[in-house]
Every structure is written in structure tokens, then in C-alpha cells.
Design a protein that fits this description.
Helices cover 58% and strands 23% of the residues. The chain is built from three helices and four strands. Strand 2 and strand 3 form a beta hairpin. The radius of gyration is 26 Å and the shape is rod-shaped.
């Protein structure tokens, strides 16, 4: 009888400890998800294709060339000292960006996928 009581008590304590651990982990996960959502709202998420980086005149020429080839895809010119960059598209997944990169790689060989 004593061994049954000790086994029951041990199982009860072990059960309470594991429940508490799951709750803590669950709250930490929820906190991380909330932080990720706030980050995505502020900084965006997904991928773009960077066609080229370098001097401003070369970037504007590349942008014009791309717009003639693909008029429906949005283009962006960014300046991150000391270089200018031209990026195109707004892709949610890397797979979508890879698919389009394969289509344009012949005409824009220096194109790469970058996170937004």
C-alpha cells in the first residue's frame, strides 16, 4: 500500500512539472510569434531579385531595360552607401523568386535573390 501511494505521489509531481513546462514554453512561443509579426509589419517579409548594384547611372539603365522586358513587375532603386541597387518583384517564398530568377537570368546574369 505504501509503495502504491509513493508511486501515485511521484506520478502526480512529475505530471504537474511537465504541465508547467509546457505552459512556459507555450507562452515563450507565443511571445516569439508576436515579435515576428511586429517585425514583418515594420520591415516586410519575403524576397526580391536584385538585378545589379553599382553606380547610379548603370542602375537606372538596368531598371529601364528591365521595365521594357517586364512592364508589370514593380522595380525598386535603393541606395546603401556606397552602392545603388535595383531590385524587382515582391515574392513571398524563395521558390517563387527562384522560378522568376530562372526566367530572367539569361538577360540579367548578375541577378541574385535577396531577402526584403
Amino acid at each position: 500500500m505504501k509503495s502504491v501511494f509513493v508511486s501515485f505521489l511521484f506520478t502526480l509531481i512529475l505530471g504537474l512539472t511537465s504541465v508547467n513546462g509546457q505552459t512556459t514554453t507555450s507562452n515563450e512561443v507565443k511571445s516569439l510569434i508576436k515579435k515576428k509579426i511586429e517585425y514583418n509589419k515594420k520591415n516586410g517579409y519575403g524576397f526580391r531579385i536584385q538585378l545589379e548594384s553599382g553606380l547610379e547611372t548603370a542602375i537606372k539603365t538596368t531598371q529601364s531595360k528591365f521595365r521594357l522586358e517586364q512592364p508589370t513587375i514593380k522595380t525598386y532603386i535603393l541606395f546603401e552607401s556606397p552602392e545603388w541597387k535595383v531590385q524587382v518583384g515582391d515574392y513571398k517564398t524563395r521558390l517563387e523568386a527562384d522560378k522568376f530568377l530562372n526566367e530572367i537570368k539569361v538577360k540579367f546574369p548578375s541577378a541574385i535573390i535577396v531577402p526584403r
